[in-house]
Amino acid sequence: MADDGARGPRAVVVGAGPSGFYAAAALLDAGFAVDLLDRLPTPFGLVRAGVAPDHPRIKAVTRVYEKTARREGLRFFGGVDVGGGAIPVDELAARWDAVVWAVGAPVPVALGIAGEELRGCHPAGDVVGWYNGHPDHASRAFDLEVERAVVLGNGNVALDVARMLLRDPAELALTDMADHAVAALADARVREVVLIGRRGPFQAAFTDGELAELGRLDGVRVAFDADGLELDPLSAAALDAEPEGSPARRKLEALAALAGASDAGADAAPADRRLSFRFLRSPLELVERDGRVGAIRLAVNRLAERDGRLVAEPTGAEETLDCGLVVTAVGHRAAPLPGLPLAGGAIANDDGRVAGRAREYVVGWAKRGPSGVIGTNKGDALETVARIVADRDAGQLAPTSGAPDAEPWLRERAPALVAWHGWEAIDAHERLRGERAGRPRVKLVDLSEMTTVAAACRT
Ligand code: NAP
Predict the structure, then answer these.
(1) Strands 33-37 and 10-14
(2) What is the pLDDT of residues 236-250, one digit of tens each?
(3) pTM over 0.85
(4) What domains can you pick out in the chain, each with its CATH number?
């Protein structure tokens, strides 16, 4: 617990995902007391609500965050909605010496094409939040009574969604996937997922490890276009310049291994589900049939060099592909918060210091946009905290000294506040339910149920 009598510098970190925890740990190291807030009663952000249920090893990073949460000087306050009305954004800097925004990039990028609003088209974030039991998305319904789904985008989120739609439901039932999604996917009729990239395999954003997993999915055949993995001359030249073992080379090798396995398996008994890669296609329109998505119209692209970058350029040819479900996985941007400047999909900042706001800082996806792996957020948070420390040492963090402890103020405005003990009660409850079912945990997905379980212990 923070020692308010000693009155060292106090920081508030808004958002208890990976970047928030790394910032909190670095601030504690630098002698700050830290209040870590989250809108949800549960911590860990995208590790809980974003990482795929069949990636338990990635989720094990929460052990590091638990250690941080138990450190002297750190207080976790879940169920606190900053900017949601009772806790205005502008009030934080009046109550803490430094404010760190670790609020991620939750807003899906829209394609801006006709038909995007049709039933049957969903941003990947909604689907990911749904299968991971995020309370905002738990009550969503997706029509999985369709033979073919299209996933737009060539990043790791697109691969996650495709894998969840195709993976054997019996395997999903052993993970921490939300119960409603386990049940819905067990009844799903999806037989093919087509992954569509606007550029070629060399430019795709997904990574080799995630690709290799696709080759290990029981009952799923991976297929490629007639053009397959052939590189255009510009991409081939770019590949030549790549050093041995580079991520781009490893990615192409993983794709080639998938194509090889697919060819070798062509004579074997047909798999009943299929994952098809289609490169150099841009979405033009979602075509309506019976009041919902029935097909997607695609432009066939070629690559052209612009300002040293290979971009997609339409050839003039078009294709139409029947499909009943479209998931857009084409990126995210930061959500607007009153008074915080946005630029390029993130909160405008100078190496972590929010532009035009004294004593306010930013980390993680809210700072640099949605890029990198979980560990990327550590160095990113260290950079921001170095700025905070420099500002403190320059005497720029003084104005709130003498302000009372903010906890009573927070509790008054967030009646459903959940402290770390409350989260531990939720965690124990979920693990116990999981143990009985042979799963890591069975998640609570309803906010009031979470707060009831948390309230059963002293918060
Ligand atoms: P991403 O890696 O940035 O991929 C976005 C994809 O969308 C790119 O292929 C991009 O193509 C495409 N795109 C953007 N605008 C488009 C448009 N208008 N039309 C068609 N395609 C468009 O983003 P992400 O998949 O959301 O992932 C975010 C971050 O989380 C990444 O760093 C990712 O590696 C990470 N992540 C990691 C894991 C894991 O490690 N297992 C899992 C999930 C996510 P262009 O390249 O042509 O722009």
Answers:
(1) parallel
(2) 999 999 999 999 999
(3) yes
(4) 10-106+333-415 (3.40.50.720), 110-330 (3.50.50.60)
